[in-house]
Design brief:
By secondary structure, the chain is mainly α. It contains 15 helices and 2 strands.
């Protein structure tokens, strides 16, 4: 039991370091992995002993002593209770995300597609890992915005995470989608999501998101965010404008947009948008018709991508 209590105290001290100490600047992947290992250890202790009143009292006494020591040493320290133990990994994550000294190298590891955190949650449209990391992303953005009024600092953080996720860009798109779909209804949450949307447009990430994410997830975003819906529609128009008719293939093909999207896929995106946001259909069709007229208003296939797009959508 003595070893168990020593490990419990050490893990609580670790949580305090993660949240409050500049030591995290020296953390590497191995250190992070060990930290999550000890957080899982405490979760295991809770599941094993929470119904054992004698052992629980001993552990609570140890927590009380450790908390008193840490409160005396660390201003702003929040004590860890026995009931906090089953969420130790969450508290570790939250502490790291709110620590302004956390280096971008560790941040990139946390947002990698295989985070050291145990993310066994219910599956959702974005995926369990991405859903948890989306919440993490919003928490980190909130911490940065509250610590500094300088938007450039928060943008720099997003830039560094994006740079670190280049080889897992599709997963990062899912993390962003999850962040935009977090459901805490508050003015601060809305402001953070608006900031994230502005950053996406500035970094030209939306086109990649619209290509990489499943249509059902894009529709969830379009329903939830007017700004996303309008930007998504702009991406669809961009895809269409970059198409030329290939006589040899008998189809519209993209010439410059990367990643490329087929004409069939483009029409599927438009139809899904109409099904999800019916009120948008009339205005979109009017604009597409005006674009068709600017191309000469021909009803011959292959002369105007807008005309052919309207023809398919109105079948």
């Amino acid at each position: 039991m003595e070893a168990v209590l020593k490990n419990l105290a050490s893990t609580v001290e670790l949580l305090a370091v993660a949240a409050h100490s500049g030591v995290v600047e020296q953390w590497d992947k191995q250190t992070l992995s060990r930290a999550f290992h000890w957080a899982r250890y405490c979760e295991h202790l809770f599941s094993r002993f929470h119904n054992n009143s004698a052992v629980r009292r001993i552990m609570e006494k140890q927590l009380q002593l450790t908390n008193q020591s840490l409160q005396a040493a660390i201003p702003g320290y929040t004590e860890v209770s026995f009931s906090d133990l089953p969420r130790c990994q969450h508290h570790l994550l939250l502490g790291l995300l709110n620590n302004p000294k956390l280096p971008s190298s560790i941040m990139r590891i946390l947002f990698d597609s295989k985070s050291p955190a145990d993310t066994k949650h219910n599956q959702s449209a974005v995926g369990a890992d991405a859903e948890v990391q989306g919440v993490m992303l919003m928490e980190r953005l909130g911490a940065l915005m509250s610590q500094s009024s300088e938007a450039c600092r928060t943008e720099h953080f997003l830039d560094s995470v994006l740079q670190g996720c280049e080889r897992a860009a599709e997963h990062f798109c899912r993390v962003i989608a999850a962040a935009l779909l977090t459901t805490e209804n508050s003015a601060s949450q809305t402001a953070l999501q608006d900031f994230l949307m502005d950053w996406l447009q500035k970094k030209h990430m939306l086109m990649h998101m619209c290509s990489a994410l499943p249509t059902t997830l894009l529709m969830d975003l379009a329903k939830e965010h007017l700004k996303f819906r309008d930007a998504y529609y702009d991406v669809l128009k961009k895809w269409a404008s970059d198409m030329e008719y290939s006589i040899s293939e008998g189809e519209w093909v993209q010439t410059s947009t990367n990643p490329t999207v087929s004409f069939q896929k483009l029409t599927e995106h438009f139809q899904a948008l109409f099904d999800t946001c019916p009120s948008l259909r009339d205005d979109v069709e009017k604009e597409l018709n005006a674009l068709k007229i600017s191309d000469g208003d021909f009803d011959v296939r292959g002369l105007s991508v807008w005309g052919d797009l309207l023809s398919v959508l109105n079948r």
